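Quick one, probably user error.
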């Protein structure tokens, strides 16, 4: 927060001064990553009747603009409801103030905000008279603006529901062009066939319907989304309406021997790279781009570089987009970039996915391909990047700015030098000092298989926050349902999600399978040796130890620390698990896609993912309380989500055990493919994608952590322990090797 020894920053100058000073201390002196800095430059109430308060809205907006411009990667937040405090009790006016304020603040660079519960009115739907008065207040463009808004406010003190209901009944009387636009913006499919036919009768040719009212409507959707006035779930519903309308027109297009599409902005090839099977994010980006009149060629998942590049040539695409979720995908993207250089490509390359970042793009990918590599953080950024890249006027500036930005990232990383690491011996000497005097002998050693598990029981463990995050709606559940900015969209999405969950449960559309094992275990440095109940060796798990120099303040952890050392003479235990809730999902997705229903295609995948995570949480509970029986607990779902219980379940590929190939040991140990139907790709991604696997640790002090960087010494040690070459170990640990 912008606050110093003098007090809270109120003017634009003070806000910039304090944030700049804090930024310089954090980045230059503390070495804090700038992308993790969030500034709150203070939002204060406007229209209070006190003259010096009149510029508070403008001060925040302009300070945000300067901070965003001059303090790279820093983010801006603020308590939005503060700005309308003078009108407490008049919710319609407060909502209008919030909407206008956010409209300008977001354009200036504001990235997040805190708002009171309630519905945020769409900027374009604010009554023109009220919007003009509010705009004048927020931007302080008229010294009498505050008094005018006070005089006007009583007129808008009602709820506005009657007007909205009248509007709901009215729209079917509009012209067919306006009805199509309304259906697209609101995501209504109920009347789309009859309205499409009426438009065809009126305009005469199917291509004129597509290039006319349909594209006009999708342009409105694209503009609203780009301006932050629509959110992702609404956009995906709009795409469903568009696709159904075009599908209705297909036979007429075919009869005319015409192309089944309008003139497009450009052609974009998208693919999840070889070895990776995750595509929800890619599909969402594709929908958003198609809503903005781009032709999308989606090659699907696990696509080799050769297929990507050959298709790009064959289809004469304008842009290539690569997606990936698991860390091996990062190396595959580097390989594709190298191949593009080797083969003389000149197309822009877009990079996106959960494990990608601006740092990886700048340091690893962009140096391999000099024709333009662009990191796209989420769907909302994709349209702007694509539009600029295909514009002769806008492209040069984007290319130049991006290259400058990437160079700054590389220089900043180089100036920090290599991370200071301890020797492996020193890191071992700084391991946590744990006691092993609370070990409970498991009730049921060995492997336990659970087939076609009751989805109703799993549903009780659902965590809704990641579900909304899938749709790029961030917030705490259930508060997100009444959030000022995204509440309306989140509530509609929640209603659809609950209906899909119920449909899946009632009709048994998905099958949930699991396998869990409990084994005697002891540790030797960073290894964990598993045996059967008779002491016969089963397998050795190879873990990694933190080597960051922590100045002795905290231990250098390794997962093996949570298992009793072999030379202690204490018999310890640990578990392994693999669960899926994605059995039978492929035909469901195919059916929705055949019906041109991207919304429900994405929805069923998101529902399956949530079932899988909930199943993993539920099986961990069952493991603790029944199969092992070391815990007697009574937590509610919020407490499960907050992990109040004893024990952890880290997964290979995640920070505490970042090396993905260790999944192969889970597969061998539990005979996962036979017992659940789950498989691994060549890059160790799990199929079905709605799957989770990992290890169970029961020690009371077990905790999650990140291994982060390791040095050559531990790399060689790991290669030796794992029985692989140093070159292979380096590939497996490329994101951790310093």
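Nope, works fine. Designed sequence:
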């Amino acid at each position: 927060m912008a606050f110093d020894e003098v007090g809270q920053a109120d003017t634009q100058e003070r806000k910039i001064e304090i944030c700049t000073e804090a930024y310089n201390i954090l980045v230059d002196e503390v070495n804090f990553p700038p992308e993790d800095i969030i500034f709150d430059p203070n939002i204060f109430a406007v229209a209070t009747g006190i003259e010096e308060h009149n510029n508070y809205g403008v001060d925040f907006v302009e300070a945000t603009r300067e901070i965003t411009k001059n303090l790279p990667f820093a983010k801006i937040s603020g308590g939005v409801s503060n700005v309308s405090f003078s009108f407490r009790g008049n919710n319609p006016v407060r909502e209008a103030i919030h909407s206008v304020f956010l409209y300008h603040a977001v354009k200036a660079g504001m990235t997040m905000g805190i708002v009171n519960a309630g519905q945020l009115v769409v900027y374009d739907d604010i009554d023109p008279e009220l919007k003009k008065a509010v705009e004048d207040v927020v931007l302080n463009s008229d010294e009498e603006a505050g008094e005018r808004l006070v005089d006007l406010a009583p007129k808008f003190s009602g709820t506005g529901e009657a007007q909205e209901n009248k509007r709901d009944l009215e729209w079917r009387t509009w012209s067919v062009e306006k009805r199509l636009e309304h259906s697209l913006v609101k995501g209504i499919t109920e009347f789309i066939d009859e309205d499409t036919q009426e438009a065809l009768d009126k305009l005469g040719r199917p291509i004129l319907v597509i290039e006319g009212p349909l594209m006009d409507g999708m342009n409105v959707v694209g503009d609203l989304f780009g301006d932050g006035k629509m959110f992702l779930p609404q956009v995906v519903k709009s795409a469903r309406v568009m696709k159904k309308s075009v599908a209705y027109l297909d036979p007429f297009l075919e009869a005319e021997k015409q192309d089944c599409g309008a003139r497009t902005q450009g052609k974009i090839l998208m693919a999840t790279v070889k070895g990776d099977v995750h595509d929800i994010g890619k599909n969402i980006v594709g929908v958003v781009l198609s809503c903005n009149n781009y032709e999308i060629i989606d090659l699907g998942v696990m696509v080799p570089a050769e297929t990507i590049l050959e298709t790009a040539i064959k289809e004469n695409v304008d842009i290539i987009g690569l997606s990936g979720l698991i860390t091996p995908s990062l190396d595959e993207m580097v390989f594709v970039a190298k191949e593009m250089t080797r083969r003389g490509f000149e197309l822009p390359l877009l990079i996106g996915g959960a494990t990608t970042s601006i740092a990886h793009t700048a340091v690893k990918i962009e140096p391999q391909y000099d024709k333009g590599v662009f990191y796209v953080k989420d769907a909302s950024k994709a349209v702007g990047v694509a539009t600029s890249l295909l514009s002769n006027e806008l492209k040069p500036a984007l290319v130049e700015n991006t290259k400058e930005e990437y160079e700054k990232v590389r220089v900043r990383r180089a100036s920090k030098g290599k991370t200071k690491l301890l020797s492996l011996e020193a890191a071992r000497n700084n391991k946590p000092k744990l006691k092993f005097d609370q070990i409970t002998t498991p009730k049921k050693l060995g492997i336990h298989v659970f087939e076609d598990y009751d989805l109703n029981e799993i549903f009780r463990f659902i965590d809704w926050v990641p579900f909304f995050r899938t749709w790029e709606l961030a917030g705490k559940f259930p508060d997100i349902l009444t959030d000022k900015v995204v509440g309306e969209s989140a509530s509609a999405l929640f209603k659809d999600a609950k209906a899909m969950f119920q449909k899946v449960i009632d009709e048994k559309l998905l099958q949930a399978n699991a396998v869990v094992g409990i084994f005697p275990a002891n540790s030797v440095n960073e290894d964990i040796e598993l045996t059967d109940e008779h002491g016969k060796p089963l397998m050795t798990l190879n873990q990694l130890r933190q080597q960051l120099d922590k100045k002795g303040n905290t231990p250098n952890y390794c997962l093996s620390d949570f298992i009793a050392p072999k030379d202690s003479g204490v018999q310890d235990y640990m578990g392994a698990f693999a669960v899926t809730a994605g059995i039978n999902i492929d035909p469901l997705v195919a059916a929705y896609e055949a019906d041109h229903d991207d919304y429900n295609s994405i929805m069923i995948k998101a529902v399956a993912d949530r079932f899988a995570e909930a199943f993993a949480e539920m099986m961990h509970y069952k493991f603790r309380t029944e199969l092992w029986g070391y815990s007697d607990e009574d937590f509610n779902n919020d407490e499960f989500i907050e992990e109040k219980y004893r024990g952890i379940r880290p997964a290979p590929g995640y920070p505490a055990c970042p090396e993905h190939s260790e999944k192969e040991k889970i597969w061998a140990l539990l005979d996962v493919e036979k017992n659940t139907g789950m498989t691994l790709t060549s890059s160790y991604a799990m199929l079905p994608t709605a799957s989770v696997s990992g290890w169970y640790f029961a020690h009371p002090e077990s905790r999650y952590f990140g291994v982060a960087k390791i040095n050559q010494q531990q790399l060689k040690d790991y290669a030796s322990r794992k029985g692989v070459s140093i070159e292979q170990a380096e590939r497996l640990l490329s994101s951790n090797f310093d």
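The first helix runs from residue 12 to 29.
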